[in-house]
Amino acid sequence: MKTIKLRSNVMAENNRIAQKLRETYEKKKLLVINIIGSPGCGKTSLLEETIKKADNNFRTMIIVGDVQTEYDAERLKKVGADAYQIETMGICHLDARMLQKKIQDIRPKGTDLLIIENVGNLVCPAGYDLGEDSKVVMVSVPEGDEKPLKYPAIFHRADLFLITKIDMLENSNFNLDRAVQNAKKINPDIKAIPMSSKTGEGMNEWFSWLEEKISRKKGG
Amino acid sequence: MKTIKLRSNVMAENNRIAQKLRETYEKKKLLVINIIGSPGCGKTSLLEETIKKADNNFRTMIIVGDVQTEYDAERLKKVGADAYQIETMGICHLDARMLQKKIQDIRPKGTDLLIIENVGNLVCPAGYDLGEDSKVVMVSVPEGDEKPLKYPAIFHRADLFLITKIDMLENSNFNLDRAVQNAKKINPDIKAIPMSSKTGEGMNEWFSWLEEKISRKKGG
Prior knowledge:
The structure is a homodimer. Chain A is an alpha/beta fold. Chain A is built from eight helices and seven strands. The termini of chain A are far apart.
Protein backbone atom coordinates (compact mmCIF):
# COMPACT_ATOMS: atom_id res chain seq x y z
CA MET A 1 0.00 0.00 0.00
CA LYS A 2 2.77 2.39 1.03
CA THR A 3 4.76 1.40 -2.06
CA ILE A 4 1.82 2.05 -4.34
CA LYS A 5 1.16 5.45 -2.78
CA LEU A 6 4.80 6.46 -3.07
CA ARG A 7 4.93 5.26 -6.65
CA SER A 8 1.92 7.37 -7.50
CA ASN A 9 3.64 10.37 -5.86
CA VAL A 10 6.77 9.75 -7.93
CA MET A 11 4.62 9.57 -11.05
CA ALA A 12 2.69 12.74 -10.17
CA GLU A 13 5.99 14.58 -9.70
CA ASN A 14 7.29 13.20 -13.00
CA ASN A 15 4.13 14.31 -14.81
CA ARG A 16 4.36 17.76 -13.25
CA ILE A 17 7.89 18.26 -14.57
CA ALA A 18 6.98 16.68 -17.92
CA GLN A 19 4.21 19.24 -18.30
CA LYS A 20 6.73 22.05 -17.71
CA LEU A 21 9.04 20.50 -20.30
CA ARG A 22 6.12 20.28 -22.74
CA GLU A 23 5.53 24.02 -22.31
CA THR A 24 9.22 24.74 -22.89
CA TYR A 25 9.26 22.62 -26.06
CA GLU A 26 6.05 24.33 -27.22
CA LYS A 27 7.52 27.80 -26.79
CA LYS A 28 10.59 26.79 -28.81
CA LYS A 29 8.43 25.00 -31.45
CA LEU A 30 10.70 22.03 -30.85
CA LEU A 31 9.44 18.60 -31.89
CA VAL A 32 10.45 16.01 -29.31
CA ILE A 33 10.56 12.28 -30.04
CA ASN A 34 11.22 9.65 -27.36
CA ILE A 35 12.63 6.42 -28.82
CA ILE A 36 12.20 3.27 -26.73
CA GLY A 37 13.52 -0.21 -27.50
CA SER A 38 15.59 -3.08 -26.12
CA PRO A 39 19.37 -3.02 -25.84
CA GLY A 40 20.84 -3.61 -29.27
CA CYS A 41 17.64 -3.14 -31.30
CA GLY A 42 19.40 -0.54 -33.45
CA LYS A 43 18.47 2.79 -31.86
CA THR A 44 21.89 4.40 -32.21
CA SER A 45 22.44 2.99 -35.72
CA LEU A 46 19.16 4.52 -36.87
CA LEU A 47 20.16 7.86 -35.37
CA GLU A 48 23.56 7.74 -37.09
CA GLU A 49 21.82 7.23 -40.44
CA THR A 50 19.26 9.91 -39.60
CA ILE A 51 21.99 12.47 -38.89
CA LYS A 52 23.97 11.52 -42.02
CA LYS A 53 20.95 11.91 -44.28
CA ALA A 54 19.18 14.84 -42.61
CA ASP A 55 21.60 17.36 -44.13
CA ASN A 56 20.21 20.78 -43.45
CA ASN A 57 16.57 19.86 -43.83
CA PHE A 58 16.04 20.13 -40.10
CA ARG A 59 18.35 20.95 -37.22
CA THR A 60 18.51 17.99 -34.87
CA MET A 61 19.75 17.48 -31.33
CA ILE A 62 20.02 14.10 -29.63
CA ILE A 63 19.97 13.19 -25.95
CA VAL A 64 21.00 9.60 -25.23
CA GLY A 65 20.17 7.78 -22.01
CA ASP A 66 22.30 4.89 -20.80
CA VAL A 67 22.68 3.16 -17.47
CA GLN A 68 26.40 3.66 -17.77
CA THR A 69 29.02 4.85 -20.36
CA GLU A 70 28.97 7.69 -22.88
CA TYR A 71 29.58 5.45 -25.92
CA ASP A 72 26.39 6.25 -27.74
CA ALA A 73 26.78 10.04 -27.60
CA GLU A 74 30.38 9.58 -28.75
CA ARG A 75 29.26 7.38 -31.67
CA LEU A 76 26.73 10.01 -32.68
CA LYS A 77 29.18 12.90 -32.39
CA LYS A 78 31.46 11.06 -34.84
CA VAL A 79 28.84 11.41 -37.57
CA GLY A 80 28.43 15.09 -36.74
CA ALA A 81 25.47 14.92 -34.38
CA ASP A 82 24.80 17.50 -31.71
CA ALA A 83 24.55 14.73 -29.11
CA TYR A 84 24.46 14.69 -25.31
CA GLN A 85 24.54 11.79 -22.89
CA ILE A 86 22.60 11.22 -19.70
CA GLU A 87 24.14 8.48 -17.56
CA THR A 88 21.38 7.24 -15.27
CA MET A 89 23.83 5.42 -12.95
CA GLY A 90 21.77 2.28 -12.54
CA ILE A 91 18.30 3.68 -13.17
CA CYS A 92 16.44 1.71 -15.84
CA HIS A 93 14.75 4.64 -17.61
CA LEU A 94 14.98 8.38 -18.20
CA ASP A 95 12.65 10.53 -16.14
CA ALA A 96 11.44 14.08 -16.63
CA ARG A 97 13.77 15.50 -13.98
CA MET A 98 16.86 14.11 -15.73
CA LEU A 99 15.65 15.64 -18.99
CA GLN A 100 14.88 18.98 -17.35
CA LYS A 101 18.39 19.18 -15.90
CA LYS A 102 19.99 18.36 -19.24
CA ILE A 103 17.79 20.80 -21.16
CA GLN A 104 18.75 23.53 -18.69
CA ASP A 105 22.44 22.80 -19.36
CA ILE A 106 22.13 22.64 -23.14
CA ARG A 107 19.67 25.50 -23.69
CA PRO A 108 18.67 24.38 -27.22
CA LYS A 109 18.12 27.27 -29.62
CA GLY A 110 17.06 27.15 -33.24
CA THR A 111 16.66 23.38 -33.07
CA ASP A 112 13.74 21.80 -34.97
CA LEU A 113 13.93 18.28 -33.59
CA LEU A 114 15.07 16.77 -30.32
CA ILE A 115 15.38 13.00 -30.39
CA ILE A 116 15.65 11.27 -27.04
CA GLU A 117 17.19 7.81 -27.21
CA ASN A 118 15.93 6.22 -23.99
CA VAL A 119 17.74 3.55 -21.93
CA GLY A 120 17.68 0.15 -23.68
CA ASN A 121 14.61 -1.36 -22.03
CA LEU A 122 11.19 -2.23 -23.42
CA VAL A 123 9.41 -2.06 -20.05
CA CYS A 124 10.18 0.78 -17.64
CA PRO A 125 10.74 3.79 -19.97
CA ALA A 126 7.16 3.34 -21.25
CA GLY A 127 5.79 4.69 -17.96
CA TYR A 128 7.70 7.98 -17.84
CA ASP A 129 6.38 11.01 -19.68
CA LEU A 130 9.26 13.22 -20.82
CA GLY A 131 6.98 15.88 -22.28
CA GLU A 132 7.58 14.44 -25.75
CA ASP A 133 5.27 14.86 -28.74
CA SER A 134 5.53 11.19 -29.64
CA LYS A 135 6.89 7.97 -28.29
CA VAL A 136 8.43 5.69 -30.91
CA VAL A 137 8.83 1.98 -30.14
CA MET A 138 11.51 -0.06 -31.88
CA VAL A 139 11.77 -3.85 -32.22
CA SER A 140 14.41 -5.56 -34.33
CA VAL A 141 13.81 -8.67 -36.43
CA PRO A 142 16.00 -10.97 -34.27
CA GLU A 143 13.80 -10.18 -31.24
CA GLY A 144 10.66 -11.83 -32.64
CA ASP A 145 7.27 -10.67 -33.94
CA GLU A 146 5.32 -11.42 -30.72
CA LYS A 147 7.00 -8.59 -28.80
CA PRO A 148 3.99 -6.18 -29.03
CA LEU A 149 1.84 -8.71 -27.15
CA LYS A 150 4.48 -9.33 -24.50
CA TYR A 151 5.27 -5.64 -23.89
CA PRO A 152 1.88 -3.96 -24.46
CA ALA A 153 2.43 -0.81 -22.35
CA ILE A 154 4.84 0.84 -24.76
CA PHE A 155 2.80 -0.17 -27.83
CA HIS A 156 -0.26 1.33 -26.21
CA ARG A 157 1.51 4.68 -25.81
CA ALA A 158 3.59 4.90 -28.99
CA ASP A 159 2.55 6.64 -32.23
CA LEU A 160 5.10 4.84 -34.37
CA PHE A 161 6.48 1.29 -34.48
CA LEU A 162 9.84 0.95 -36.19
CA ILE A 163 10.63 -2.62 -37.17
CA THR A 164 14.41 -2.56 -37.55
CA LYS A 165 17.04 -4.87 -39.08
CA ILE A 166 14.68 -6.14 -41.81
CA ASP A 167 17.83 -7.10 -43.74
CA MET A 168 17.81 -10.07 -41.32
CA LEU A 169 14.33 -11.28 -42.35
CA GLU A 170 15.68 -14.10 -44.50
CA ASN A 171 16.11 -17.34 -42.54
CA SER A 172 14.22 -15.87 -39.58
CA ASN A 173 10.78 -16.73 -38.19
CA PHE A 174 9.86 -13.06 -37.98
CA ASN A 175 6.71 -12.32 -39.99
CA LEU A 176 6.30 -8.61 -40.81
CA ASP A 177 2.52 -8.76 -41.24
CA ARG A 178 2.10 -10.62 -37.97
CA ALA A 179 4.29 -8.09 -36.14
CA VAL A 180 2.15 -5.21 -37.42
CA GLN A 181 -1.09 -7.07 -36.63
CA ASN A 182 0.14 -7.77 -33.09
CA ALA A 183 0.98 -4.08 -32.61
CA LYS A 184 -2.44 -3.02 -33.93
CA LYS A 185 -4.18 -5.41 -31.54
CA ILE A 186 -2.73 -3.27 -28.74
CA ASN A 187 -3.03 0.08 -30.51
CA PRO A 188 -5.10 0.23 -33.72
CA ASP A 189 -3.77 3.74 -34.54
CA ILE A 190 -0.09 2.88 -34.41
CA LYS A 191 1.82 3.41 -37.66
CA ALA A 192 4.47 0.83 -38.58
CA ILE A 193 7.60 1.33 -40.67
CA PRO A 194 9.77 -1.70 -41.50
CA MET A 195 13.32 -0.51 -41.99
CA SER A 196 17.02 -1.29 -42.13
CA SER A 197 19.83 1.08 -41.21
CA LYS A 198 22.12 -1.19 -43.25
CA THR A 199 20.26 -1.15 -46.58
CA GLY A 200 18.47 2.17 -46.10
CA GLU A 201 15.05 0.59 -46.60
CA GLY A 202 12.30 2.54 -44.84
CA MET A 203 14.47 5.63 -44.27
CA ASN A 204 12.39 7.78 -46.64
CA GLU A 205 9.22 6.88 -44.81
CA TRP A 206 10.86 7.67 -41.45
CA PHE A 207 11.98 11.06 -42.78
CA SER A 208 8.51 11.82 -44.15
CA TRP A 209 7.01 11.00 -40.77
CA LEU A 210 9.49 13.31 -39.01
CA GLU A 211 9.15 16.15 -41.53
CA GLU A 212 5.39 16.12 -41.38
CA LYS A 213 5.52 16.27 -37.58
CA ILE A 214 8.11 19.07 -37.61
CA SER A 215 6.16 21.19 -40.05
CA ARG A 216 2.95 20.66 -38.10
CA LYS A 217 4.74 21.76 -34.91
CA LYS A 218 6.12 24.88 -36.60
CA GLY A 219 2.73 25.78 -38.02
CA GLY A 220 0.77 24.92 -34.89
CA MET B 1 15.34 10.62 0.57
CA LYS B 2 11.97 9.02 1.26
CA THR B 3 12.21 7.16 -2.05
CA ILE B 4 15.64 5.83 -1.19
CA LYS B 5 14.55 4.67 2.25
CA LEU B 6 11.46 2.95 0.86
CA ARG B 7 13.51 1.33 -1.86
CA SER B 8 15.91 -0.02 0.72
CA ASN B 9 12.93 -1.40 2.70
CA VAL B 10 11.60 -3.09 -0.44
CA MET B 11 15.04 -4.59 -1.04
CA ALA B 12 15.41 -5.74 2.56
CA GLU B 13 12.02 -7.47 2.33
CA ASN B 14 13.01 -9.05 -0.99
CA ASN B 15 16.29 -10.30 0.49
CA ARG B 16 14.49 -11.72 3.52
CA ILE B 17 12.17 -13.79 1.30
CA ALA B 18 15.05 -14.76 -1.00
CA GLN B 19 16.90 -16.13 2.01
CA LYS B 20 13.87 -18.28 2.87
CA LEU B 21 13.71 -19.50 -0.72
CA ARG B 22 17.41 -20.31 -0.58
CA GLU B 23 16.81 -22.49 2.49
CA THR B 24 13.92 -24.26 0.73
CA TYR B 25 16.07 -24.95 -2.35
CA GLU B 26 18.89 -26.14 -0.09
CA LYS B 27 16.64 -28.62 1.69
CA LYS B 28 15.44 -30.02 -1.62
CA LYS B 29 18.99 -30.05 -3.07
CA LEU B 30 17.53 -28.13 -5.95
CA LEU B 31 19.91 -26.14 -8.17
CA VAL B 32 18.34 -22.82 -9.13
CA ILE B 33 19.50 -20.73 -12.10
CA ASN B 34 18.19 -17.24 -12.83
CA ILE B 35 18.56 -16.32 -16.53
CA ILE B 36 18.55 -12.62 -17.37
CA GLY B 37 18.71 -11.03 -20.82
CA SER B 38 16.96 -8.59 -23.16
CA PRO B 39 13.70 -9.34 -24.96
CA GLY B 40 14.45 -11.61 -27.90
CA CYS B 41 18.01 -12.55 -26.92
CA GLY B 42 17.09 -16.23 -27.18
CA LYS B 43 16.24 -17.25 -23.61
CA THR B 44 13.23 -19.42 -24.49
CA SER B 45 14.95 -20.95 -27.54
CA LEU B 46 17.88 -22.01 -25.38
CA LEU B 47 15.50 -23.57 -22.86
CA GLU B 48 13.65 -25.45 -25.62
CA GLU B 49 16.94 -26.95 -26.76
CA THR B 50 17.98 -27.64 -23.17
CA ILE B 51 14.78 -29.58 -22.50
CA LYS B 52 15.01 -31.51 -25.79
CA LYS B 53 18.60 -32.60 -25.10
CA ALA B 54 18.45 -33.09 -21.32
CA ASP B 55 16.68 -36.45 -21.66
CA ASN B 56 16.66 -38.05 -18.25
CA ASN B 57 20.05 -36.78 -17.17
CA PHE B 58 18.47 -34.31 -14.81
CA ARG B 59 14.86 -33.47 -13.99
CA THR B 60 14.20 -29.85 -14.86
CA MET B 61 11.46 -27.40 -14.04
CA ILE B 62 11.13 -23.97 -15.61
CA ILE B 63 9.46 -20.81 -14.31
CA VAL B 64 9.08 -18.07 -16.92
CA GLY B 65 8.49 -14.42 -16.07
CA ASP B 66 6.80 -12.10 -18.53
CA VAL B 67 5.15 -8.72 -18.20
CA GLN B 68 2.14 -10.16 -19.97
CA THR B 69 1.08 -13.35 -21.85
CA GLU B 70 1.78 -17.02 -21.21
CA TYR B 71 3.39 -17.68 -24.60
CA ASP B 72 6.76 -18.71 -23.31
CA ALA B 73 5.49 -21.34 -20.87
CA GLU B 74 3.25 -22.67 -23.67
CA ARG B 75 6.22 -22.85 -26.07
CA LEU B 76 8.19 -24.76 -23.47
CA LYS B 77 5.36 -27.16 -22.66
CA LYS B 78 5.22 -28.07 -26.36
CA VAL B 79 8.72 -29.55 -26.14
CA GLY B 80 7.76 -31.45 -23.00
CA ALA B 81 8.97 -29.04 -20.35
CA ASP B 82 7.50 -28.86 -16.88
CA ALA B 83 6.99 -25.12 -17.29
CA TYR B 84 5.08 -22.49 -15.30
CA GLN B 85 4.43 -18.84 -16.09
CA ILE B 86 4.48 -15.82 -13.82
CA GLU B 87 2.76 -12.82 -15.40
CA THR B 88 4.09 -9.74 -13.63
CA MET B 89 1.31 -7.49 -14.96
CA GLY B 90 3.50 -4.54 -15.80
CA ILE B 91 6.35 -5.12 -13.35
CA CYS B 92 9.74 -5.14 -15.08
CA HIS B 93 11.36 -7.97 -13.10
CA LEU B 94 10.61 -11.03 -10.98
CA ASP B 95 10.92 -10.58 -7.23
CA ALA B 96 11.33 -13.12 -4.45
CA ARG B 97 7.70 -12.82 -3.34
CA MET B 98 6.41 -13.78 -6.82
CA LEU B 99 8.74 -16.79 -6.80
CA GLN B 100 7.74 -17.81 -3.30
CA LYS B 101 4.06 -17.77 -4.26
CA LYS B 102 4.71 -19.85 -7.37
CA ILE B 103 6.91 -22.34 -5.54
CA GLN B 104 4.19 -22.79 -2.92
CA ASP B 105 1.71 -23.59 -5.70
CA ILE B 106 3.98 -25.99 -7.58
CA ARG B 107 5.61 -27.79 -4.64
CA PRO B 108 8.52 -29.15 -6.70
CA LYS B 109 9.57 -32.64 -5.68
CA GLY B 110 12.36 -34.78 -7.04
CA THR B 111 13.49 -31.97 -9.31
CA ASP B 112 17.24 -31.45 -9.83
CA LEU B 113 17.21 -28.13 -11.61
CA LEU B 114 14.92 -25.11 -11.55
CA ILE B 115 15.58 -22.62 -14.31
CA ILE B 116 14.01 -19.20 -13.91
CA GLU B 117 13.65 -17.27 -17.16
CA ASN B 118 13.37 -13.70 -15.92
CA VAL B 119 11.43 -10.86 -17.62
CA GLY B 120 13.20 -9.67 -20.80
CA ASN B 121 15.19 -6.79 -19.37
CA LEU B 122 18.92 -6.32 -18.89
CA VAL B 123 18.58 -3.73 -16.12
CA CYS B 124 16.02 -4.26 -13.35
CA PRO B 125 16.08 -8.06 -12.78
CA ALA B 126 19.78 -7.76 -11.85
CA GLY B 127 18.87 -6.15 -8.53
CA TYR B 128 16.46 -8.81 -7.23
CA ASP B 129 17.79 -11.85 -5.42
CA LEU B 130 15.51 -14.85 -6.04
CA GLY B 131 17.52 -17.15 -3.78
CA GLU B 132 19.19 -18.63 -6.85
CA ASP B 133 22.54 -20.41 -6.89
CA SER B 134 23.67 -18.54 -9.98
CA LYS B 135 22.60 -15.70 -12.18
CA VAL B 136 23.26 -16.26 -15.89
CA VAL B 137 23.42 -13.25 -18.22
CA MET B 138 22.61 -13.64 -21.90
CA VAL B 139 23.47 -11.30 -24.79
CA SER B 140 22.83 -12.18 -28.42
CA VAL B 141 25.16 -11.29 -31.28
CA PRO B 142 22.77 -8.75 -32.89
CA GLU B 143 22.79 -6.72 -29.67
CA GLY B 144 26.48 -5.79 -29.85
CA ASP B 145 29.66 -6.67 -27.95
CA GLU B 146 29.74 -3.51 -25.79
CA LYS B 147 26.71 -4.55 -23.75
CA PRO B 148 28.71 -5.69 -20.67
CA LEU B 149 30.06 -2.15 -20.27
CA LYS B 150 26.66 -0.53 -20.73
CA TYR B 151 24.84 -2.87 -18.32
CA PRO B 152 27.51 -3.64 -15.71
CA ALA B 153 25.22 -4.52 -12.77
CA ILE B 154 24.11 -7.86 -14.14
CA PHE B 155 27.63 -8.76 -15.33
CA HIS B 156 28.94 -7.97 -11.89
CA ARG B 157 26.48 -10.46 -10.33
CA ALA B 158 26.41 -13.27 -12.91
CA ASP B 159 28.54 -16.42 -12.84
CA LEU B 160 28.01 -17.24 -16.49
CA PHE B 161 27.79 -15.16 -19.68
CA LEU B 162 26.00 -16.89 -22.55
CA ILE B 163 26.71 -15.25 -25.90
CA THR B 164 23.82 -16.45 -28.04
CA LYS B 165 23.01 -16.49 -31.78
CA ILE B 166 26.66 -16.90 -32.78
CA ASP B 167 25.33 -18.30 -36.08
CA MET B 168 24.77 -14.58 -36.85
CA LEU B 169 28.45 -13.61 -36.38
CA GLU B 170 29.14 -13.44 -40.10
CA ASN B 171 28.53 -9.95 -41.52
CA SER B 172 28.16 -8.53 -38.01
CA ASN B 173 30.44 -6.16 -36.08
CA PHE B 174 30.24 -8.37 -33.00
CA ASN B 175 33.67 -9.50 -31.87
CA LEU B 176 33.59 -12.53 -29.56
CA ASP B 177 36.93 -11.82 -27.88
CA ARG B 178 35.99 -8.22 -27.27
CA ALA B 179 32.64 -9.25 -25.76
CA VAL B 180 34.39 -11.62 -23.33
CA GLN B 181 37.06 -9.01 -22.49
CA ASN B 182 34.35 -6.43 -21.79
CA ALA B 183 32.56 -8.86 -19.49
CA LYS B 184 35.79 -9.69 -17.65
CA LYS B 185 36.53 -5.99 -17.13
CA ILE B 186 33.35 -5.92 -15.00
CA ASN B 187 33.75 -9.38 -13.47
CA PRO B 188 37.10 -11.17 -13.92
CA ASP B 189 35.63 -14.47 -12.66
CA ILE B 190 32.75 -14.67 -15.13
CA LYS B 191 32.77 -17.70 -17.44
CA ALA B 192 31.68 -17.16 -21.04
CA ILE B 193 30.09 -19.67 -23.42
CA PRO B 194 29.48 -18.63 -27.04
CA MET B 195 26.54 -20.64 -28.36
CA SER B 196 23.78 -21.04 -30.90
CA SER B 197 20.43 -22.74 -30.30
CA LYS B 198 20.19 -23.07 -34.09
CA THR B 199 23.45 -24.94 -34.78
CA GLY B 200 23.87 -26.49 -31.34
CA GLU B 201 27.28 -24.92 -30.87
CA GLY B 202 28.14 -24.42 -27.20
CA MET B 203 25.35 -26.70 -25.97
CA ASN B 204 27.78 -29.32 -24.63
CA GLU B 205 29.63 -26.71 -22.63
CA TRP B 206 26.33 -25.38 -21.25
CA PHE B 207 25.32 -28.89 -20.20
CA SER B 208 28.69 -29.53 -18.55
CA TRP B 209 28.35 -26.31 -16.61
CA LEU B 210 24.84 -27.30 -15.44
CA GLU B 211 25.78 -30.91 -14.63
CA GLU B 212 28.78 -29.90 -12.59
CA LYS B 213 26.66 -27.46 -10.59
CA ILE B 214 23.89 -30.03 -10.07
CA SER B 215 26.26 -32.71 -8.87
CA ARG B 216 27.99 -30.24 -6.54
CA LYS B 217 24.60 -29.26 -5.09
CA LYS B 218 23.62 -32.90 -4.58
CA GLY B 219 26.92 -33.69 -2.93
CA GLY B 220 27.10 -30.54 -0.82
